[in-house]
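ok so I'm stuck.
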Amino acid sequence: DSDGLIQSYNLTSGSTTINLFQKKYNLVATSESIIPYNIVLDSLITDDIVLKFQSKNIASENLISSTNWSSDGVWIIQDNKLLSQQEEYYSNNLVSAITLDNIIDLETDRLIAIELNLRYELEWDRDSIFFNIKSANSVFNLATWTNQNWINHSEYYFITLDKDEVYDIEFILKSDSKLDYRGIEISDLRIHI
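replied:
not stuck anymore, here's the structure
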């Protein structure tokens, strides 16, 4: 909900009724067999909401093991995980990037979902990791992490991309001159179309 609280429900085919407080809600539906689905709900709506899911077509297996990554040398892939640095903690005054080149090339304009399994630890509001989708003509920031969640969890990002572009995935770490933290560890990265 708009307060950041998370509640899980099991949805089945047929009708499911959920009573909600008057707030805005972000519904993310996930399953082994559907593309992750995202919709913003306003609890003032009393009409039925019909969710139409598409069968999952994984455009990629776990992309962490891809050989198409290009890095400035700080980011590494180790034990099938993408790490923001080789040492236990990242350095001060750092701007470091890694890019998975030419990974998204669509035949039609379409909504895609990107699924990450990750954990991260950054100096609160001082250090940042940016998750971008970029092409020759544009950069879309899908997420910026500036805090801590050092528990493996999944996050889903949705974006509509044009067919006339080839897209890269990019992660950038920026740190200040103060404390060092563990950075980010991504164990799974998948694209669903």
